[in-house]
């Protein structure tokens, strides 16, 4: 879904101009509402996010409530901190205390956008908008994820076997569940089994069931996952870990659609859609003879690859916002968001554990922080970039003067990051010139020593 339009309603010209400039710069389609007559009487298209100050809002409350009733209008209101209690208790009414903090505003706008994206009351986004989610569980707006959503929707129509490959934590199980949910089998069971987590000697009985007395401890007949998944979907996770003798048995079920429970000679017919997943490279395993080639081809009728998070960084803020909302709700916390600096750090991190790692981090931050904004100081050390303060020129060669850029890049620039980088560079140059002496470096920069130390700490820079 593209961002929905933002409307600003404020009688104070300076405030609305500031908000307009900031939000437009952040890439939001933003409009000032000069007078509310047309806006409330004939909204077309219906407004979905309104940013306004509380007194203005109160003056127009009946109109706004009327407008919001039909189309899930999210209202972001600002005023003195104690005014918040006037607002209705509803996730669509977001409050921001004055003075306005633009980081906070942006995080609220992201929450509003997320609300629109996930709201079950808005299942059909306008035709010109692409969804940011599938089955309200898989979040993503990157090209790779939109392609994945399309693929899942197509695949769901058939009963063909699917092989989902991708690194750990990329959402393979979520994708499998979405395929099932969108398929004609959705009213039957989705049965997951992790082939790596069950000991080899028990896996066969887990999959195919057993008859009473077939082995020590088999006190009664027991249905296996194939039987439970009849007319539904069986999700074979970590298929790459399945041992050779079971691979043969699985191949047979895929070919004949029949199986025998352990200890029985009677075949049972079954109609199961198989979705297998692995984070191993199955083709390599086939080449190394660790995985049967014939089974590999049977499983990979439709191959799907989940992209790692580091290759779709534009999904990171969206996922963070989604998990933040979820953990704030679950844990009754009021964490407002990640500061711009910490968001930038997370967007540049490599995420070896993919979305699972991101989800765990947000949960940890929400648990520890409880409220306010998460700053770089709150992040665990491994997420912070390793600073390099070594002068980039060899000894005896003078470092170039930090002249900055002469022209604005065609695609625009993030002013805050650029200014931040420029500041860091000047500090590095000053420290390089003074051999790491902070007092002298501070003097060169016309700063108090303590201010320089603060900045070094904030930027996680070291002086030597
Ligand atoms: N695109 C996404 N949107 C929202 N949540 C996601 C997304 N991708 C993954 N997750 C979340 O990340 C966690 C890991 O997802 P999942 O178990 O599907 O990954 P996986 O690839 O099957 O991992 P593994 O290979 O380790 O089994 C889950 O909590 C899931 O809800």
TrEMBL record:
Domain annotation Sigma-54 factor interaction: ranges: 138-367
Q: Which SUPFAM superfamilies does the entry link to?
A: CheY-like, Homeodomain-like, P-loop containing nucleoside triphosphate hydrolases
Keyword Transport assigned: no
Q: Which UniProt keywords apply?
A: ATP-binding, DNA-binding, Nucleotide-binding, Transcription, Transcription regulation
**Where are the membrane-spanning stretches?**
none
UniProt feature coiled coil, ranges: none
Alphabetized Pfam families for the sequence: AAA_lid_14 (PF25601), HTH_8 (PF02954), Sigma54_activat (PF00158)
Q: What is this protein called?
A: Two component, sigma54 specific, transcriptional regulator, Fis family
Native source organism of the sequence = Trichlorobacter ammonificans
